[in-house]
Specification:
Elements lengths: L1 E7 L4 H11 L6 E8 L5 H8 L4 E3 L8 H14 L4 E4 L8 H6 L4 E5 L14 H10 L3 E8 L9 E8 L6 H25 L3 E4 L2 E4 L1
The chain binds 5-O-phosphono-beta-D-ribofuranosylamine.
5-O-phosphono-beta-D-ribofuranosylamine (GRF) binds next to helix 1, strand 5 and helix 6.
Length: about 210
């Protein structure tokens, strides 16, 4: 049984998609052991508690130094005996020690087709604003393993979504979530839980 800790900062719709997929059997052999938020008012915490999952806040504000905060975050993940860390809208740059301790065991969802519209500064609505500004006709979402770079880790799954005339960043964000993010995030977790993925030369192979 794959033990998952989900890190969140906001609404938690991706978290909800994972919870539902586990409950409905689309993800097998996995359970969420803990949800950690850096924001105590994140609605994602309520979603976790409603599903009977232990939900805790590790806030930067509660610690004197960045180092203390980072150690507390790592401790909260370790304590849950975590096999896989899932970043589902976690708006904190991950501590190097965390990336090292959980090498190839952290995944992230990004709301574009990497390598477009990704890297430093590309998060939330900004990603969709830039896609619309550039006039792309297709965008989408990417689930990838996390390495020390920003959105540079091995790509697990991608799904394309059409851009329609008249889209606003908000409309496009919603379509990308509904048509791509909420599907490929659970799918990627299921593949990992069933031991189907291998990383070779920086690429993900599916067996
Ligand atoms: C999603 O757009 C995800 O791609 C990005 O942050 C957002 C999180 O939304 N990394 P939610 O909290 O899962 O609703």
């Amino acid at each position: 049984m794959l033990k998952i800790t989900v890190l969140v900062s906001g609404g938690g719709t991706n978290l909800q998609a994972v919870i539902d997929s586990i409950n409905e059997g689309r993800i097998k052999d996995a359970k969420i052991v803990r949800v950690i938020s850096n924001k105590e008012d994140a609605y994602a915490l309520t979603r976790a508690r409603n599903a009977g999952i232990k939900a805790v806040t590790v806030s930067r504000k509660a610690y004197d130094t960045k180092q203390d905060f980072e150690e507390a975050l790592l401790k909260a993940i370790d304590e849950a005996d975590t096999d896989l860390v899932v970043l589902a809208g976690f708006l904190v740059v991950l501590p190097t020690k965390l990336v090292e301790s959980y090498e190839n065991r952290i995944i992230n969802i990004h709301p574009s087709l990497i390598p477009s519209f990704c890297g430093k500064g590309f998060y939330g609505l900004k990603v969709h604003e830039e896609a619309l500004k550039r006039g792309v006709k297709v965008t989408g979402a990417t689930v990838h393993f996390v390495d020390k770079g920003c959105d540079t880790g091995p790509i697990i799954l991608q799904k394309a979504v059409s851009v329609e005339e008249g889209d606003t960043p908000e409309i496009l964000q919603k379509r990308v979530m509904e048509q791509a993010e909420w599907k490929i995030m659970p799918e990627a977790i299921d593949l990992i839980a069933r031991g189907k993925l291998e990383i070779k030369d920086g690429k993900v192979l599916k067996h």
